[in-house]
Amino acid sequence: MADHFCKEVSYEINSRTYYGIGFQNDAGGWEIRNKNCKQSSAPKDVTRLGSGNTAAHVFEGFMDFLSYRALHPYEDPRSVDYVVLNGAGLFDRTQPFLEQHARVHLWLDRDVTGLAYTQYALSLGGRFVDESGFYEKFKDLNDWLQHKGEVKKPVLRLGGGLRSAG
Asked: What string of DSSP letters covers 31-72?
């Protein structure tokens, strides 16, 4: 699935070549991830994937977007519009695009910044819906998906009683 939205990119820092997964933004810049780093190339911008639908889903980063797509493999990606902010601070850039939608589903991070932007969006009107309750005990949708199915197992403690492990 990632092949549809991402490309392998190579980049150079201090005469050394590196590789990563690249997700292109609307201005031609890239969000780049590999096991060692998380970075962007200029220009920094949002990524809008739209077909003129009435509903849109908004993600803070492309890994959350890919996680959503992995959870909905049979959903036609053209049946709904998507916005990947590539950083919460770019939320305001999406407003003209989001105003074209009757329903906007927010899948933002559950950290201070993500929750603040969620509250801000909810204050803009009833068309915004906070979906982060789905992964409320995790940082974001991708974090939830990585830990899906993990259950804290009870551990027998000498001296009586049970305690939860990990």
From this structure: EEE-SS-EEE-SSP--EEE-SS-SEEEEESSHHHHHHHHHH-
Query: pTM, whole model, 2 decimals?
Result: 0.87
27-49 confidence digits (pLDDT tens): 999 999 999 999 999 999 999 99
Res 1: pLDDT: 75
Strand partners, 31: 23, 40
**Greatest Cα-to-Cα distance within the chain, rounded to the nearest angstrom:** 63
Return the sign of the alpha-carbon dihedral for residues 76, 71, 27, 12.
negative
**Cα distance between residue 143 and residue 107, in whole Å:** 12
Spatial CA neighbour of 133 closest among 121, 144, 122: 144
Residues 88, 92: Cα–Cα separation, whole Å: 9
Burial pattern 38-52, b for ≥16 Cβ within 10 A else e, equals eeeeeeebbbbbeee
Q: Which domains does the chain have, with CATH numbers?
A: 43-146 (3.40.1360.10)
- Residue written as tokens 């493999």? 73
User: Tokens 């031609």 correspond to what residue?
Assistant: 28
